[in-house]
Amino acid sequence: MSFIRTLRGDISPKELGFTYSHEHIVCRPPFWLEKEAHDLLLEDKEKSKLDVNDFKSHGGKTIVDATAIDYGRDVKAVQEISEELDIHIVGTAGFNKSFLWNAKIQKELKPILGDYVTYHEWIQSKTINELTDFVIAEVEAGLEGTPFKAGQVKFGTGYNRITPLEEKTLRAVARAHKETKAPIHSHTEAGTMGLEQIALLKSEGIDLSHMSFGHMDRNPDPFYHEQIARTGAFLCFDGIAKIKYAPESTRIHCILELVKKGYEDQILISGDTARKTYYKHYDYGLGLEFIIAKWVPRFIEDANRQGYDGQKLIEKFFIKNPARCFSFKK
Predict the structure, then answer these.
(1) Which tens digit of pLDDT belongs to each residue from 194-232?
(2) pLDDT tens figures, 129-153
(3) In the sheet that 88-94 helps form, which strands lie side by side, from edge to edge?
(4) What are phi and psi of 249, to 5 degrees?
(5) How many CB atoms lie within 10 A of CB 45?
């Protein structure tokens, strides 16, 4: 029996509907808080809620909030948005890519960090099994002591490298997945180190069909994408609208290359909308409505011109594939 775990409880995969597979809704990343990088602080619940409502008004049903604990998530605020708008939101246990945040939020996270000043110290001090138990608790009991449970587990690695601490959290998350059956998501900085992550996951005995690899469009290399797809994993193209990295034509080309090779059932799409300037109701950005309202019609037209059934592909990328990817399979 399969189910999807949301912040409002477990649902059937059939209830998921049109889904963004990687977003950030309310968060205060400690690293950016320290540097006073205000663009990267999504601290206003009501403004975030307006953007989520825009997504819903165009037919959106579910958002996967990929904010891990070390990226400054606000579990209560995000769960309230889910309740108030009657929209499904999937929460995330595990870790991002780095643990070098300083003491600015030590007081806020005292129940977790204890006497440790930084995540680096906290992770360093724990065994893999202790970290595994922490992640399991966030899936089975609740995130940060709340009753709201995580629907996926996450790890991350940096640009063209995997540090010992990152390997430690990868192994902890892999073991938590084996215990809970929660789907796994990985942060790949600029789309790098996916194959190296796969080697470590295989050493932990992970079935890669339960994995999704983020930021694949940051490394727009069809050969690399095919190597990952061959493992059975999902590839998340979550940089839609970020023209500073690549035009949409490049992303669509990479996506259709995978479709041409037979991997259309392993593709996820989202925006990783994590800046005020990306949000409509914070700072006049394109907002959470952009993909569903503007990008989807453009993709359908482009795909149809190239001989594909664009509408059918959209249904796979946003409905059928997420329903499989984010399922707990017990």
Answers:
(1) 999 999 999 999 999 999 999 999 999 999 999 999 999
(2) 999 999 999 999 999 999 999 999 9
(3) 19-23, 62-65, 88-94, 150-157, 184-188, 211-213, 234-237, 267-269
(4) -60, -35
(5) 17
**What CA–CA distance (Å, rounded) separates 257 from 189?**
22
Whether the model clears a pTM of 0.90, i.e. scores above it, the answer is: yes
| Res. 283: pLDDT tops 90 | yes
Burial of residue 317, with CB atoms counted within 10 A of its CB: 0-12 exposed, 13-18 middle, 19 or more buried: buried
Q: How distant, in Å, are the alpha carbons of 10, 12, 178, 229, 237 from that of 153? A: 16, 19, 11, 20, 18
* pLDDT beyond 70 at 191: yes
What domains are there in the chain, each with its CATH number? 2-329 (3.20.20.140)
